[in-house]
Amino acid sequence: MNSKAGSTFGSDGATDSSAARRNSKKPKYSKFTQQELPACKPLLTPGIVISTFALIGIIFIPIGLASLSASEHVVELVDRYDADCVPQHLRDDKLAFIQNSQTNKTCTRRLIVPKQMSSPIQVYYQLDNFYQNHRRYVKSRSDKQLKSKSSERETKTCEPEGTTGDGLAIVPCGLIAWSLFNDTYSFSANSKSLQVNKKDIAWQSDKKHKFGSDVYPKNFQSGGLIGGASLNASIPLSEQEDLIVWMRTAALPTFRKLYGRIEVDLEANEEITVVIQNNYNTYSFGGKKKLVLSTTSWIGGKNNFLGVAYLTVGGLCLFLAMGFILLYVFKPRTLGDPSYLSWNRNAAGYSN
Amino acid sequence: MKRIVYINDESCQDLYCDNRVSNRKYTLLNFLPKNLWEQFRRFMNQYFLLIACLQLWSLITPVNPASTWGPLIIIFAVSATKEAWDDYNRYLSDKQANEKEVWVVKNGVRKHIQAQDICVGNVVWLRENDEVPCDLVLIGTSEPQGTCYVETAALDGETDLKTRVIPPTCVGLDSEQLHRIKGVIECPNPDKDIRRFVANMRLFPPFIDNDICPLTINNTLLQSCYLRNTEWACGVAVYTGNETKLGMSRGIPEPKLTAMDAMIDKLTGAIFLFQIVVVVVLGFAGNVWKDTEARKQWYVKYPEEGPWYELLVIPLRFELLCSIMIPISIKVSLDLMKSLYAKFIDWDEDMFDAETKTPAHAANTAISEDLGQVEYILTDKTGTLTENRMIFKRCCINGIFFGNESGDALEDVELLNAVANNIPHVIRFLTVMTLCNTVIPIKSKSGAISYKAQSQDEDALVKAAAQLHMVLIGKNGNIIVEVFAEINFNGSILQYEVLDILEFTSDRKRMSMVVKDCQTGKIFLLSKGADEAIFPCSNSGQQIRTFMDAVEQYAQLGLRTLCLGWRELKEDEYIEWSHMFKEASSTLVDREWRLAEVCQRLEHDLEILGVTAIEDRLQDGVPETIEILRKAGINFWMLTGDKQSTAIQIALLCNFISSEPKGQLLFINGKTEDEVARSLERVLLTMRITTSEPKELAFVVDGWALEIILKQYKEAFTELAILSRTAICCRVTPSQKAQLVELLKSCDYRTLAIGDGGNDVRMIQQADIGVGISGREGLQAARAADYSIGKFRFLKRLILVHGRYSYNRTAFLSQYSFYKSLLICFIQIIFSFLSGISGTSLFNSVSLMAYNVFYTSIPVLTVVLDKDLSERTVMQHPQILIYCQAGRLLNPSTFAGWFGRSVYHAIVVFLITIHAYADEKSEMEELSMVALSGCIWLQAFVVTLEMNSFTILQILAIWGNFVAFYVINFIVSSIPSAGMYTIMFRLCTQPSYWITMVLIVALGMGPVLALRYFRYTYRPSAINILQQAERSRGPIYSLGMLESQLKSVEKDVASLSINQPKSRSSVYEPLLSDSPTATRRSIGPSAFDFFQSMPSRISSSYMRNCKDN
């Protein structure tokens, strides 16, 4: 066995292996056991470090510019309507306004398209200060129930919206579904109505695999307290795309969710009229509601962050590279000069 | 307190345990509870269990309980399996021993029974090469003289054969009688002293008389010895099972904790406190938020009235969320790494001693890091620094020096002439050399005589005498009763009857023998021993001045001296004394002391014949090793039983101390307490004054003064110990050695004790690290030690290479483990501010568990192959060890660096993620995966940046892990029920995902790299400088050549120093000016320290400073 090891790793051929055979206690030789595996030992030389930083800078700035321009090309139209859509005389008590089912909640907004927007134009609603990621909220759903009809009674995780007062299972159960966003928008441009396509706003994978096509809403919003939108009990959950979108919970308290798509181009300075059914209560917690129309680019929606960050980081890297070059020129240091070793210096000068 | 054993009595056998040997810790039934109990005694495990239990409460758990239970169960299963496997192996070996067939007399008939059924009092028969199944008192052997030979290697590691004799009262019993023997043995209760057995035996009629017969260890066969060169032997079982001497000395040693472990525990404690603070603050904030804000959030539907424990819910959630701050994987990773360090030591070819064919061995796998932090090495001299191969070099007979010219008395023509001319003094001298010992000559079939000696000195003397034509050719007969020693002198055979042996003890420091010349019938007392033990017994009329000079002179050369003396006894004087001796040797109480007293009565008025000088050569490479280790800032203390002058000489020879003017020796001596106190005070004063001077001070203290000091002036001595880098303690006992270790440990120094003999065992066990040299004095020390090596010179590799690497690697691994756990935890904490301080986990359970157990644990394990500097550079610059010694790589401030880095990285990852994935992209599962990927990307670069060298394994592990992360997540993403269905596929198709990752890495690593580069170039540590030196320019000097060059110089000087005593007369005495070793030292450093520098002289106070930093 030892002789085999000796010849396998072949350090010294025959002499080695015969020596090994004579004595089995001798450690087996291999580069691993002797900690002698060939290793590359990179060194942080000025050349490597400065060129790394320079390279990062050179690569980052174009990427940053590209991202920024992509983001700049995105035309975005944002309209906050939560405050303005409350009639003037009710603004002192918005909560009463929104909670009163009798008041007329229709609200008309006029928006000017700032730049030409080419289709498809995404229509989002944006909520602020809405904690879809709150622990009580985010867990209050039953994926099993959403998926298959047979698991209808799996509502344990849905508390406190699992069952009706009579103990009947709510489908879809849980706080998330219960609080489904229920503002609606209808658009018209030049007194011609704009069609909003609400198909395929949810992820295909969700429709196919997470929401059952044989699961129909049941006992939904039938309790004493109505949360949000109600659902058409004759449409299976997999077709309830607004619900599917809503149930992809957002990780941040400010989020946008897709409402639909406008599939015609909008010209610059065109005036769009939006009729909003302002139903959803964000007034109790001071949340904002915004309507967003936006085009998309390869980088997504309008988001300058990546572009700016890239430009900043790239700039800083170039700056660092310059700095290090200057430092290198004005204060050169010989790498590995043993005279810097503490024990080669005077002991007194030692401080670390 | 006594045990009465009735020989061959079936009736009273139940009193003592049977011979079942059990080393098992567990049984099948108690394994699970006992093992769990042991594991839960560790604080970390209790903590994790508590967390895991809390997670079962679904109201508060942020993640699936499996994310803690899984790793916890794996960790427990791994260590339980290891324990079970070890225990099963112990069970198997026990079983094998227990079920071995042995011959035992039952009811007068010899029967074959299993070893486990032997009872106390049974007569056990053994054949040649049988293993002794329990402790026996020998009562019969096949040899007519009643002797037998045993090999005690398994017991004490000594490989020579030992003679065992039957007690006198059993002499002459034939095997038939031995079957029917009845009697009683009175022996002490079981103990673990394998060198002591004080008992009595009385046989019942009809066997001889009912005289009480004393028994000693020489009458016993102890468990696990082997019967050799004897056809059969039989004995009475006195101790059985786990009560045998071997069984009693077994025992699980206290686990040693390394300084690093202690530091890691401390840091863990600090993190735990930090965690508590975080939990309390966030819990409070969460409750406030809940009461003010959350109640307005109608969609959360907070009930108006919560249950009574409602206030606790949020804090407990945060506790669970933050529980990952203490990485569950750290213990497993560390244990794994440590066992690899130990394996590397076992495997190291460079520490394989080709001469004795012993590899290095790490018996304790848990303390390798401590090797790198050693501050004090306490070393034995004989056998450790020296080879313990004694060679007779010189002698002084009747005032005439032999061997001074040639350096070898055996080649001295004058001595040969004297022997040839039958000069009476010389003949007598040789006779004592040949006879006065316990050497056993063994005649092989070819007629050649070999000697079996327990003492290397005796062996050297007998061999030397044989070369001078006086050959000990045989010893017949029972050692105690009568021995005939035959000597062949120049062809004529001289016979002596050995009447009594006055054995050597370390208190008496001499041995004597009473022999009767068979030709003339005259009785002589032959004595040999240390000078101070023999000279006081000399004939008052004799001039011993020359002998004292001789002893002095030999000691200066580093030779071991023995004085020989003799006296003719009158017949009646001997007979009178002989009675006293017999009486003393059969006492049960204080036998040793009484024997010593009786011996004293005979050993007086000796005629001093001469002095022998035996050379014990330094081991190869000892001076270099000590030089390098001293440069590495390690302080050496030499603790030896030898005399002061020999010790100092050896110390000089091996660079232990430097001679004037570079070094100075300070002596602490004195006979009375006052003298010692004054001497200590003076030394201390000198020490204090000279600390600022670049002078190496060493103090010398002997056992007597040490006794007083340790009893009364401990504080002053402790201060001295702190001030002094070097000390020589001579004439110290094993327990004093241990006390000194204890003293240094109490000053918070890391101590390493190295020794080779049984007298070093206590010191080795006491020290933080015990290193045993598997040498000629047996394996006792090596067995007790944490590490055993074949030669002293391997110590430098053990410390500088293995110890240092282990320290560096563990320092990185442990801090990194905390860093990566903190990183993920800080992200969770920041996220909690954006999720209403409600304790939502950003990451899902699978990712959290996989992050901790796989993604961040496996690549970093390859740090076990990381080398910051090559072995050669470390050997060239041993000073670099200071970084490990002073704990510069793992301490609160380095840890703070890692802590800060984790905060910074958490902020970078989180902020970039939430900004890049804002608004319409802020979907929970995607965002969490982006953040997780960000962490994984960072980890890969952090590990890459922190490692110093990359072997193929490291590259594979780091980037393989990186690829594996994506592969695993692709797989998980394709399972619809896994909670992250399609997420990874979606992300990978988004350009913004990749752009985000690159941004995270650049922003996370950029400042780290810049800072590191700046420090590396403009504020480099010594490690950095050496890295730069070795990597940018390659090896500057080929040290291998230098080393061999140095070695040859060393050898020349060494032989010079032995051969030229005349040039040496000025050398000795406290102010060691002009020592020939001084020339060598001036060669040494310049050749070694290739940067033309002066040797390091980091004074001890300076050392302290470094430690404090």
Tertiary shape of chain A: extended
* Rg result of chain A: 33 Å
Arithmetic mean pLDDT of chain B: 80
- Helix/strand-derived category of chain A reads alpha+beta
Helix content of chain B: 40-55%
The succession of helices and strands of chain A, N to C, reads: HHEHEHEEHHHEEEHHEEEH
End-to-end CA span of chain B: 56 Å
Question: Main attributes?
Answer:
heterodimer, A: about 350 residues, alpha+beta, five-stranded antiparallel sheet, disordered C terminus, B: about 1100 residues, Calcium-transporting ATPase, cytoplasmic transduction domain A, nine-stranded mixed sheet, nine-stranded antiparallel sheet, 39 helices, about 45% helix, about 20% strand, ALA-interacting subunit (chain A), CDC50/LEM3_fam (chain A), transmembrane helix (chain A), transmembrane (chain A), membrane (chain A)
Summarize the structure.
Chain B: It is found in: Endomembrane system; Membrane. The complex is a heterodimer of chains A (352) and B (1109). Chain A is 30% helix and 15% strand.
Q: How are the SSEs ordered, and which strands pair?
A:
The complex is a heterodimer of chains A (352) and B (1109).
Chain A: H1 2-9, H2 13-22, E1 39-40, H3 46-73, E2 76-80, H4 94-99, E3 106-112, E4 121-127, H5 135-138, H6 143-147, H7 175-178, E5 184-189, E6 192-194, E7 196-197, H8 204-210, H9 241-247, E8 255-262, E9 271-277, E10 289-294, H10 305-330
Antiparallel strand pairs in A: 2-10, 3-9, 4-8, 4-10, 5-6, 5-9, 7-8
Helix pairs in contact in A: 1-2, 3-10
Chain B: E1 2-7, H1 31-39, H2 43-55, H3 66-98, E2 101-106, E3 109-114, E4 123-127, E5 135-141, E6 147-151, H4 153-156, E7 161-165, H5 175-180, E8 183-188, E9 199-203, E10 213-215, E11 220-221, E12 226-228, E13 232-239, H6 245-249, H7 259-294, H8 310-322, H9 330-347, E14 361-362, H10 368-371, E15 376-379, E16 386-397, E17 400-402, H11 413-420, H12 424-435, E18 440-443, E19 449-452, H13 456-467, E20 470-476, E21 483-489, E22 492-502, E23 510-517, E24 523-529, H14 531-534, H15 545-556, E25 559-569, H16 571-585, H17 591-602, E26 607-618, H18 622-631, E27 635-639, H19 644-653, E28 663-668, H20 673-690, E29 696-702, H21 703-712, H22 714-723, E30 726-730, H23 734-746, E31 751-755, H24 761-766, E32 769-773, H25 780-784, E33 787-789, H26 794-834, H27 845-855, H28 858-861, H29 871-876, H30 882-885, H31 892-916, H32 924-946, E34 950-951, H33 952-973, H34 983-989, H35 991-1018, H36 1022-1032, H37 1039-1059, H38 1076-1088, H39 1100-1108
Parallel strand pairs in B: 15-27, 15-31, 27-30, 28-29, 29-30, 31-32, 32-33
Antiparallel strand pairs in B: 1-8, 2-3, 2-4, 4-13, 5-11, 5-13, 6-7, 6-12, 8-9, 9-10, 14-33, 16-17, 16-26, 18-19, 20-21, 21-22, 22-23, 23-24, 24-25, 25-26
